[in-house]
Design goal:
46% helix, five-stranded parallel β-sheet, two-stranded antiparallel sheet, Rossmann fold, 276 residues, single chain, alpha/beta
C-alpha cells in the first residue's frame, strides 16, 4: 500500500473539535495521531511548507518503526481531547499492529494558513478540516488561549505566510490589524480561516463539529475508508455538542452575523448549529 495513503492531516478552525477527532482516531490499534507536534510550527513558518510537512511525516514514521519515543499531547495513554483543559506534551512509544500504520498529524492555525500549499504538495494524503458554527467557535475562544481571545495571531504578520494567501484573504488580514474592537477582530479571523477552507473545498474532507460529536462513526468511516487503520481498541460513542453561544453579547453576535454568516452557510454549519 502507498504509505502516502496511510497519512492523515488534521486541521480546522481552532476550537472546532480537532483534538477530539484526534482522540477518536487514535483509538484504532493501527493508527498514531500526533496532536500539534512542535515541529509543525517551524515547518509551516517558512517557504515550501507542503514539502517540509511531507518530510516531517517521513521522519516521524521512521522513528515509530524504529521504536524511538515521540512527543505527543497524551494523558493516560490517550490523546488529550481538549487542549484548553490540559496542554502538555510527553514522550512515549506508540504501539501499532503492523508497520504500515496510519499516521496523522494535527495542527490548526499553522496548517490552515498554508492549506493550499499542502494540498498541492501532498495530493494523495487525506486532509480533514473541522468547522463549527462561528457563534460556538468564537464563544469558545473567549475562554481559551490568549491569541484566540484577542484575535492577535503573530503569524498574520509573517510575510512568507501572507504572500501565499489570496488578495481577498490579505485584505481581511489588513482589516484584522486595523480593527480597534477585539470582537470585530475575532469575527474577521473566523472569516479569514473559513475563506481559506472554502478555497480548498475540493481537496479536503470537511468535518462538521456537531456531526462529529453526535454521530461520529459514520463520519470517520467516510474518510478512513480502505486505510489499514486496524480495529478499535476502545469504543466510539455518540455524545452531545457543547454550545458556547451563550457567552456572546448581542453586539458580538452582530459582528459574527456580518462577517461570518455567508461563509458559514457555504460550509454548511450555520443552519445546522443554530437549530440544535
Amino acid at each position: 500500500m502507498n504509505k502516502a495513503r496511510q497519512d492523515i492531516i488534521i486541521t480546522g478552525i481552532p476550537r472546532s473539535g480537532t483534538s477530539y477527532l484526534c482522540n477518536l482516531l487514535n483509538r484504532y490499534n493501527n493508527c498514531v495521531i500526533i496532536n500539534e507536534p512542535r515541529e509543525a510550527w517551524k515547518v509551516t513558518s517558512g517557504w515550501w511548507p507542503g514539502i517540509r510537512l511531507r518530510k516531517l511525516y517521513k521522519n516521524i514514521r521512521e522513528k515509530i518503526v524504529r521504536g524511538l519515543p515521540i512527543e505527543n499531547k497524551i494523558a493516560g495513554g490517550e490523546i488529550i481531547a481538549d487542549t484548553r483543559l490540559k496542554d502538555e506534551r510527553y514522550f512515549y512509544n506508540p504501539e501499532t499492529s503492523d508497520q504500515n500504520f496510519v499516521l496523522g498529524i494535527k495542527n490548526t492555525l499553522g496548517f490552515l494558513l498554508c492549506l493550499g500549499d499542502i494540498c498541492k504538495a501532498m495530493p494523495t494524503v487525506t486532509i480533514v478540516v473541522n468547522v463549527r458554527h462561528p457563534y460556538d467557535t468564537i464563544g469558545s475562544w473567549l475562554n481559551s488561549f490568549a491569541h484566540l481571545k484577542t484575535a492577535d495571531v503573530p503569524r498574520l504578520s509573517n510575510k512568507k505566510i501572507v504572500k501565499r494567501l489570496s488578495k481577498n484573504q490579505q485584505a481581511i488580514i489588513n482589516q484584522i490589524q486595523q480593527a480597534g474592537e477585539v470582537a470585530l477582530r475575532r469575527a474577521l479571523l473566523w472569516q479569514l480561516l473559513s475563506d481559506i477552507i472554502i478555497d480548498n473545498r475540493q481537496n479536503i474532507h470537511l468535518v462538521n463539529y456537531n456531526t462529529l460529536v453526535a454521530n461520529p462513526q459514520p463520519l470517520l468511516n467516510s474518510f478512513i475508508g480502505a486505510m489499514n487503520i486496524g480495529k478499535l481498541a476502545q469504543p466510539i460513542e455518540a455524545s452531545q455538542a457543547r454550545r458556547r453561544d451563550n457567552r456572546l453579547t448581542e453586539q458580538q453576535k452582530k459582528y459574527i452575523d456580518e462577517q461570518c454568516k455567508e461563509n458559514a452557510e457555504k460550509l454548511g454549519v450555520w443552519q445546522i448549529e443554530t437549530t440544535v
